[in-house]
Design brief:
By secondary structure, the chain is of the alpha/beta class. The chain is about 30% helix and about 25% strand. The chain has seven helices and nine strands, in the order βββαβααβαβαβββαα. The strands form three sheets. It has a four-stranded parallel sheet with strand order 4-5-6-7, with no helix packed on it. The chain has a three-stranded antiparallel sheet with strand order 2-1-3, covered by helices on one side. Helix 1 packs parallel to helix 3. The two termini are about 30 Å apart.
Length: about 210
């Protein structure tokens, strides 16, 4: 998003100011606001050019406060996305993230994101409706993480269409909480691609080969 050096800064509900992407999820407390360590960090011009030419813009999945929102703090990125006539998707995370989105529902995610970009200009939010296996639920619960509760209705305050599909894939990865290999839930990339293609067929049909 930018070639400038800037660090993430979080303001916590209790007034603490935490600097550094890796530090923010470790401190505990609900995040009130995100900003960058410098004011008016300029966007990489090529990024603005690509956004302006895009047929589809996809936000997520990823850490809400430390991966997705930071891009929107770079000067010009939010405005370029909002001006774009591209189809806009937000991919809801599968699980809450300890220290960052504890107990967040789907609506909580959208409310937080809407502080940084106008979600009324988005077309779709994509949610997983496939249950997480019980053994994995217990593993995640021990780490303080749970499936993101789907509490979105239609119509909703953003006028955004809600897409619900089976999107789970279970892979074995190194878990940062334990530094050990363990089963992990992820979005199935092919299923997610099919969903995006389904709701933006005019854009993707010429390029899709399943």
């Amino acid at each position: 998003a930018t070639l400038e050096h800037a660090e993430l800064v979080a303001e916590i509900d209790d007034g603490r100011i935490i600097q550094g992407e890796s530090q923010i999820p470790r401190v505990g407390g609900r995040i009130r606001r995100m900003q960058l360590s410098q004011t008016c960090v300029p966007a990489y011009p090529k990024v603005l050019e690509e956004i302006g030419q895009a047929d589809a813009i996809i936000l997520g999945p990823g850490s809400l406060f430390t991966s997705i929102i930071p891009n929107l703090l770079v000067a010009g990125i939010r405005e370029a996305i909002e001006r774009s006539h591209a189809k806009k998707f937000y991919i809801m995370n599968l699980m809450t993230q300890p220290g960052e989105t504890d107990s967040f529902t789907a609506k909580d995610h959208l409310k937080a994101l809407n502080e940084y970009i106008d979600l009324r200009l988005f077309d779709f939010v994509v949610l997983n409706k496939q249950p997480v296996p019980a053994a994995l639920l217990a593993q995640y619960a021990r780490e303080g993480s749970n499936p993101v509760e789907d509490n979105l209705g239609e119509p909703n305050e953003w006028g955004i269409k809600v897409i619900r599909e089976d999107l789970l894939e279970i892979v074995t990865l190194l878990r940062w909480q334990s530094d050990q290999q363990a089963p992990t839930v992820k979005h199935n990339p092919r299923q997610l691609a099919r969903v995006i293609q389904k709701y933006a067929p005019d854009i993707f049909q010429p390029f899709v080969r399943w």
